[in-house]
Write a sequence for this structure.
């Protein structure tokens, strides 16, 4: 259950964290006015919210661990691309894809939780959900702190990308153990 907490801290925590820090990031990094930055953030949040049930549906059909490994690696890849601080059109596409993948992953994590903890789903969903909320608190805090220390968002974005990739690799390893 604790492992799923970490995974949900990446997917949901990433989703919430990005949606709370994106206006500042877009304003500081790309000089967008706050209305445009807020509109782009709203688009990311909307798409991420809409695909969450789809993530659960696909996980029901294909298998949660298999999908979750791919989703976490995709999140890591897109966040790493954002960490390159590309031009605004590229950054916009990468941001939309990253946050949408995070939303998709939210549904997948809860499919895995319901599959693994059928008799304790209330406890599992409460604990995992709390971890996701904590992740959403930590992400903007560490991005801001690392920007203050390094002068760039790059370090924090790359660190989050690395965490997502490690989480994805952990799913691959755990998935192999379940299939034996």
């Amino acid at each position: 259950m604790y492992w799923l907490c970490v995974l949900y801290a990446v997917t949901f925590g990433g989703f919430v964290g990005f949606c709370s820090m994106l206006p500042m990031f877009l304003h500081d990094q790309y000089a967008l006015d706050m209305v445009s930055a807020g509109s782009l953030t709203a688009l990311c949040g909307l798409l991420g919210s809409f695909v969450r049930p789809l993530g659960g549906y696909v996980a029901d059909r294909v298998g949660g661990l298999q999908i979750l490994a791919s989703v976490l690696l995709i999140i890591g890849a897109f966040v790493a691309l954002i960490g390159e601080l590309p031009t605004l059109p590229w950054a916009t596409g990468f941001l939309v894809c990253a946050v949408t993948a995070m939303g998709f992953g939210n549904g997948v994590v809860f499919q895995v939780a319901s599959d693994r903890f059928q008799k304790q789903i209330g406890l599992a969903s409460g604990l995992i959900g709390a971890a996701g909320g904590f992740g959403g608190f930590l992400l903007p805090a560490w991005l801001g702190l690392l920007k203050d220390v390094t002068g760039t968002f790059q370090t924090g974005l790359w660190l989050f990308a690395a965490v997502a990739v490690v989480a994805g690799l952990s799913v691959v390893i755990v998935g192999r153990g379940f299939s034996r």
Q: What stands out?
A: The radius of gyration is 16 Å. The mean pLDDT is 89. The CA atoms of residues 92 and 118 lie 39 Å apart. The helical segments are 2-30, 34-62, 64-83, 88-116, 121-150, 154-179.
